[in-house]
Amino acid sequence: IRLSWKSARNDTLKDLNSFVDAVAVLFPLSEDAPAVTMGRKGAPVNAWYWKANHAESPYEVMAEGWGSSERRPGKASGLAARAVYADGAWSVVLQRSLSAGQGYVEFSPGKPSRIALAVWNGTDRERSGRKSFSGEFAVFDIE
User: Fold this and answer.
1) Ordered DSSP codes for 33-83
2) Which of 12, 45, 68, 114 has its CA 20 to 30 A from that of 61?
């Protein structure tokens, strides 16, 4: 998955009032998992999360609603990231095999999948739950 957006470069924490750029893609692990609350009890979600100050080390995030996020190193599932900042914009590629084992989102070519997006802009002091967010899941296809 390739994501690009315009932003001032925020990739280091300089003081307590500085914040870094980040991006996440969220996938439901159950048909009735809501994106807005990052899932709910019994209806989990799986996110791929990249932060500019940890550019080459993305995280897998598992959640079942607000306050339940569990971060896992991306290398455990094979999740990798490559990020480039140029001409006032970030381009981030997150990649992983279509299947990473039980508990992680799985993809099948020809079968619709769902995705939600979130972007944190450090310049706007976005962090944690304060972010730009796509809303509920949108459908996408893998050919």
Assistant:
1) --TTTT-BTTB-EEEEEEEGGGTT--EEEEESSTT--EEEEGGGTT-EEEE
2) 12
